[in-house]
Amino acid sequence: MSSFHYPPRPDRVRAARQQAIRQGILWLLLGFTAVLAGSAGAFLAVMLPRPVIPTSLTPGEQEAFRPDALRAAALDRSLHILILGTDNPDPALPLSRERERLNTRTDTILLARFDPQARRITVLSIPRDTRVRLPSFGVTKINAANLVGGPALTAQVVSTLLGGIPIDRYVRLNTDALEELIDAVGGVEVYVPEPMHYVDHTQRLFINLEPGWQRLNGEQAHHFARFRRDHLGLGDIGRVQRQQELLRALSRELLSPAVWPRIPKVLQVVRTHLDTNLTWEEVLSLAKFVLTSGGDRIDLVLLPGRFSQPGEFSTSYWLPDPAAIRRVAVSHFGLEAEVARIPPQRLRIAVQNATGKPGMARRMVQELVRQGYTQVFAVEDSPQVLPQTEILAQSGDREGAKQVRAALGLGELRVESTGVLNSDITIRIGQDWAQQLTLDIDQAQSPARGAQL
Fold first, then answer.
1. pLDDT tens figures, 274-332
2. Residue 242 belongs to domain spanning
3. Number of independent structural domains in the chain
4. Lowest model confidence (mean pLDDT) among 182-196, 207-221, 292-306, 349-363
5. Does residue 271 fall inside a structural domain?
6. Is 446 helix (H, G, I), strand (E, B) or coil?
7. Is residue 302 in a domain?
8. CA distance 314 to 45
9. Where are any strands of DSSP class E within 176-232?
């Protein structure tokens, strides 16, 4: 008996054809994606291990840096990167190669540590007037190291200064890079504490900034960082502190999602004024680490030391403090050594009133002394009014700052050296502490009023 099959319905025929077409397109896309991925993978396999800029280091100079810093674009251990901001040379100088324009004295010296275990970034600022000994050259200021021996010699000197910690990579930028980078992100917002006016025709430097919160473009930010005639007379250290404020402000901009579409432009801008031995693989890994860490996990530390006294040397220096540097290297850069911690009672705590109300610094000094802190002193009131109290680990002592915050019961804790220079902890009293003080006084007086009634 023969079997009879009904012909398929037209709508089912159309559905089957559409499904076959979709499957065909899917397989075509998958095939195209596979080819594209294979090509991209081959491209990345070739490009990622390559330096961002062809290196000019000799084999001997390359030994100043730890090899194989990152593997498979994974930040699997701490990484130390030396960042050098160089002076712009006279554009009329006959330089045979563009790279030679970076072989000048350094205006900025930073050592950045990227720590995947702590999920934290630490940036150490080294004053350019720091007194060091350059091998085969003699005693001089550290800003001459790049001029004499380039990034390799500078890395050797910085490593020795910090007890022998390894330096993995370096980045050299000139002044134009900083200005164009800040312009590329749309400027940075900083607080200008006082009028900044200065003219130097020989350097073509014309600084004119008014006090208060300002959004600075690249040239203005450069002027903010270079200004040296602050009323406190801090000179080079004042510049270092303003550089830290710019770093904090720039990190906020770079971590803002609104800026992310501009990142390719930022990289292109920086690359034209850059010298580095980083590879593209390492750049991508570091960028991922920075974006996932967040701006609140960046510590800014100053190399401990003091100003030389008039007549102590033939020129002025920043004189390193070996014991304090050792504490910083152990706490922030992984140096394996025994150090003695400063007892809380011996912490030098500077208190600055930023409430807009007189007498608050004196009140806080009394409170801290009552709690057992013996080296507390008040400084000049801040022109800036803060809604929230800030507790700054000026010397990098995070644990000490935590104990002070616990004693006060409030405050935003940051590790940065923008506070009072001769302090371990700087407290900027905000309006929140003044309000809490008023509340405590009212509560203390309430039982007395009740007894009188």
1. 888 888 888 888 888 887 776 678 999 999 999 999 999 999 999 999 999 999 999 99
2. 59-333
3. 2
4. 292-306
5. yes
6. helix
7. yes
8. 54
9. 188-192, 196-200, 205-209, 212-216
